[in-house]
């Protein structure tokens, strides 16, 4: 089991920045990929960004390339999502995700609202 706890959401004006954090605990050594998804009411959860622990590969959704950066702190078992130049369509609940083979783990989500 892997437990994930997100933090850092809030209200920000268009063009502003936020940094989300996700602290992982439990059997984190079994995780081979970690990343972020987001969801708005009535829509499916969508991929935002992720990286693989083993290969170090990073992937971003086209909608956030150049504005969002995913990073990790191995010593703290924490990943981050730096979000710059936020747009109103970025308003969503952001979820941290960890994949360990066939198992998928999710955090409780953190609300990000982009509005003036």
Structural summary, described in words:
- The chain is mainly beta and 116 residues long.
- It has no helices and eleven strands.
- It has strands at 2-7, 10-12, 18-26, 33-39, 46-52, 58-60, 68-73, 78-83, 92-100, 103-106, 110-114.
- The strands form two sheets. Strands 2, 4, 5, 6, 9, 10 and 11 form a seven-stranded mixed beta sheet that branches.
- A hairpin with a 6-residue loop joins β4 and β5 (46-52).
- It starts with a strand and ends with a strand.
Largest sheet: 7 strands, mixed
SS elements, strand count: 11
Class based on secondary structure composition and strand pairing:
mainly beta
Report the sheet-strand fraction: over 45%
Coarse shape:
globular
Unreliable residue runs: none
Helix segment tally: 0
Multimer state: single chain
Roughly how much helix do the residues carry, as a percent range? under 10%
Quote the distance from N terminus to C terminus: 40 Å
Rg, Cα atoms, Å: 13 Å
Average pLDDT across residues? 93
The SSE order reads EEEEEEEEEEE
